[in-house]
């Protein structure tokens, strides 16, 4: 089963939701904290692999994990996870292939979707979310 977490009331939109870059960095920080709680070691943020910028790069045992983080202020229209469209999935696969070509024996692609609503924050971790 995929891990997920609810973290009570969300910070006000003024603190969590901000400009795109600030909001993205906050989402990545939340995702990195979740990964560490789940037993992964975060080994890079905003890493370029195969010409693709990866939000987070983590290690779980011998597996390297390419992580796409999506933060949304609303869950309608499918929520944060559906923001990983076909083009984005293709770029994530290209990044994973670059890792494999560098000699990393095991690579997977995860998506962490974070949604903030007035009544709280929801984080969902989709392991092995993107495959070829």
From TrEMBL:
Coiled-coil zones: none
Molecular-function GO terms, alphabetical: nucleic acid binding
Gene3D superfamilies documented for this protein: 3.40.1350.10
UniProt region (Disordered), positions on chain: 1-20
One Pfam family cited in the UniProt record for this chain: UPF0102
HAMAP family assigned: UPF0102
Family: Belongs to the UPF0102 family.
Record's protein name: UPF0102 protein E6K72_04735
Taxonomic source organism: Eiseniibacteriota bacterium
